[in-house]
Write the structure tokens for this entry.
Amino acid sequence: MPQKEWFAEWFDSPYYHLLYQNRNDEEAKVFIEKLCAHLQLAPQTAVLDLACGKGRHSITLAKLGFQVTGADLAPNSIQLAKEAQSALDLDKLQFVVHDMREVIPNQHFGAVFNLFTSFGYFDDLAANQQVCEAISKMLDPNGLLVIDFLNAQKVINNLVASETVYRGDIRFDIKRWANDGHIYKEISIQDPQLTAPVGPFTERVQALGLSDFHQLLEPKFELLQNFGSYHLDTFEASKSERLILIAKKKL
């Protein structure tokens, strides 16, 4: 059998969800509300949360009145998202297992959201263009694309080379480095219930900057705005926490 791509294996691991269990859901909710107010999407707009993880952004979008599809490659994440949806009884929301490099058949959207650095995971840089092509095909004319990415320059300048994190009695040893246009995080796991270590898993994201996204999006999209934080502050390469891009599909 062909070896799984790193993100397909790691993002579907229960240890991934355990390590990142403390993500700030309230911050995500405030960001989505501020972003949607800025975008002024019409009520009931069909939107796609692409690489949705456990669906925290999708749920907020559905509560705001949009018709939401959350899509992610990891079946475990989608199962957790469906459980959260069932508990909240949100009928404007559906979740599907989906590879972002492909088109979801027979679905079109007024907006596509790709949030929390869910881009640039691939070995082949050409796959980025494949993602953009698929998004363009799924968007309505003049549909909007939002990409929320890390600020690669600041991340590289402030890398913490190593640290140890505990979740209960499970130990995560983490190493970070940058090389060959990528940012890496290697995660080794010591679970006392197991006789051998788990992993290591190595996260790898392309260190894409604003000019890279300009070049990537230009064939299919018009870049409208960029921001540097979840408060939609001005982007500054040396200071900003995030690189948030808003683009419109070209006619």
